[in-house]
Amino acid sequence: MVAHTVVDSPVGPLTLVARDGVLSGLYMTDQRYRPGEETFGARDASLLGDVVAQLAEYFAGTRTEFDVPLDLVGTPFQRSVWAELRSIPFGATVSYGELARALGRPTAARAVGLANGHNPISIIVPCHRVVGSGGDLTGYGGGIARKRQLLDFESGASPLDLAVPAGAVHAPTRTRSGAATG
Fold this sequence. Notes:
By secondary structure, the protein is an alpha/beta fold. The protein is 27% helix and 18% strand.
């Protein structure tokens, strides 16, 4: 059975989709590759209480990792990319190339980017932590402004209760090795 709920967040409403009670989608408003509403099933406000609680903790700054069960549907390659995304620490970033190398596919940066863009569970599977080779913000299904907002929040540069103004100056984020980017 598929059902969904919608929760408010500092980055806008989040639609949480569950298949048989397990989180299978977390979508932002106007997200690229967002499935049609008709695929989300009935709305149920009591759905996914553990996910809602962990998201609230994340946005409050008291949670840096999620431990809710996930139902990630994709190709074996996409699922391997999404699993690797979950290993990127809070506050850190990696490039598409670094992610491809970590998967043992050093020439697959573009394929990694495509899989990253089709991630069905934003924030919890932190695709926002992947940046271009020079640390630049390249693409994000939820929009570049949201990506910057999430990265600034995770780096401690800005609280998530404020919108990020267009063209705002931001603090650098950290790579897995601790190097500053941005």
